[in-house]
Structures are given as C-alpha cells and as structure tokens.
Amino acid sequence: DGGITQSPKYLFRKEGQNVTLSCEQNLNHDAMYWYRQDPGQGLRLIYYSQIVNDFQKGDIAEGYSVSREKKESFPLTVTSAQKNPTAFYLCASSHQGARETQYFGPGTRLLVL
Amino acid sequence: AQKVTQAQTEISVVEKEDVTLDCVYETRDTTYYLFWYKQPPSGELVFLIRRNSFDEQNEISGRYSWNFQKSTSSFNFTITASQVVDSAVYFCALSEAYGGATNKLIFGTGTLLAVQP
C-alpha cells in the first residue's frame, strides 16, 4: 500500500541530546514537509523540501535540521538548540504545486526526560 | 497576512444530531485552496476535501457537506446525523503558494468534536 510512515511512534530526548525522526513515503511525491503540533494549536511548518537535495525553512526552523538525500526520505533532527522540543511531529508529502493536497503520516510524539 | 480562524474550540453533540464546524479565512490572493482534515485520537491527519477559490459550489459526500462562501470568506463543514466515530479534531487549512511551486498550508487551531452516544 502507498503511504507515509514515521518512526518511532514515541521518542524520548535527554538534555543536550540530538534526536532524529524518520519519515518515508512511497507515493512518488516530490515535496515533503515537517510540521509541529502543540496541544490545542494548529500545525506549524518547520521545514519543507520540493526536490531532492533542496529544502527551505518554514516558520519555526530554529533548533531543527533536515536532509533530503533521497526522494522517499526526509528525516528531521531535533537539536539541543531546540529548548522546547516536546510536541507531536507530523510529516507530510505532496506533488508539487499550490493546489496539491498534502497527505500526512501517523506522527511521532517527542518527550523530554 | 493569511489566516484561518476556527472560533469553536470544542463542540459536544449527541449521536444523530447535525453539527456545523465553522471556518473563516483571510487572504489577499485571488487564487487559493481550502482544505479540511480530520485528526482522530490516533493523531494522523486524514484529508477530507479540497476546494479552489473559483468553485463555490457546495459539496456533499455521504453525511459530510461543505459550504464555501467567498462573500463571507467562510468554508463551513456540516456533519449530518453525527456518529461516535466522527469524534475527532477537525482542521481547516488555507493553501498559500510558498516559494512559487509548493503549497504552504496555513492551519486553523482546530475544533474538537465530541459525539456522545
């Protein structure tokens, strides 16, 4: 089945630690996105990528980094510079273009120990 | 600036009642797209509908219907004869052409719908 997978489902981070969230899609989409969701709030864009080896910052990129070495994969690293990382992280993908629908993965919940 | 407002934070209904979720948006673009997503307790966002700014026809899909009115900048979502499985957070979103080729979604804060048996 085509879709988007995210792993792990839950992730725990210690102080000063970098952690990486995985996102894989087999929908043949060029564009991929990372969003952060805090309780009672909408989704906010962290980073997005339109094609392989290219990515741009979204609204809240500070403390995060990404890579896009393969079309299918768009991992997100939460660095120690992100002081408030506890949140629900959602990955999405779409075909390119403003009218295209974004489809979402199941999400990763990050908690700080 | 583009913005999406979902003024209803929480709605509680009894099964079989009809319920309308409100969405009001702001944009300067003449071409834009509006979306509704459902987020059940599992967390994954499920796509429900996309509308473009040139198509104001209402749409019906089973028990779901959408009312798009450009004059009031609203894109409301109605569930007829609600069921317990409809319990979820519902998000309205607006598409902005960010960087020219990729859509950036502006999300509302969501409406939590609780359907009681």
Features:
heterodimer, A: 113 residues, mainly beta, seven-stranded mixed sheet, 11 strands, B: 117 residues, six-stranded mixed sheet, four-stranded antiparallel sheet, 12 strands, globular
Secondary structure layout:
The complex is a heterodimer of chains A (113) and B (117).
Chain A: E1 4-7, E2 10-13, E3 19-25, E4 31-37, E5 43-49, E6 56-57, E7 64-66, E8 76-78, E9 87-94, E10 103-104, E11 108-112
Parallel strand pairs in A: 2-11
Antiparallel strand pairs in A: 1-3, 3-8, 4-5, 4-9, 5-6, 7-8, 9-10, 9-11
Chain B: E1 3-5, E2 10-14, E3 19-21, E4 24-26, E5 33-39, E6 46-52, E7 59-61, E8 64-69, E9 74-79, E10 88-98, E11 102-107, E12 111-116
Parallel strand pairs in B: 2-12
Antiparallel strand pairs in B: 1-4, 3-9, 5-6, 5-10, 7-8, 8-9, 10-11, 10-12
The ordered string of helix (H) and strand (E) elements of chain A is EEEEEEEEEEE
Name the overall outline of chain A. Answer: globular
The residue-averaged pLDDT of chain B reads 92
Largest sheet of chain B: 6 strands, mixed
Helix content of chain A: under 10%
Task: Walk me through the structure.
The complex is a heterodimer of chains A (113) and B (117). Chain A is mainly beta. Helices cover 0% and strands 46% of the residues of chain A. Chain A is built from no helices and 11 strands. In chain A, the strands form 2 sheets. In chain A, strands 2, 4, 5, 6, 9, 10 and 11 form a 7-stranded mixed sheet that branches. A 4-stranded antiparallel sheet of chain A has the order 1-3-8-7, with no helix packed on it. In chain A, strand 5 (43-49) and strand 6 (56-57) form a beta hairpin. Chain A starts with a strand and ends with a strand. The model of chain A has no long low-confidence stretch (mean pLDDT 93). The mean pLDDT of chain B is 92. The relative contact order of chain B is 0.33. Chain B has no helices and 12 strands. With 117 residues, chain B is mainly beta. Chains A and B meet through strand 5, strand 9 and strand 10 of A and strand 5, strand 6, strand 10 and strand 11 of B.
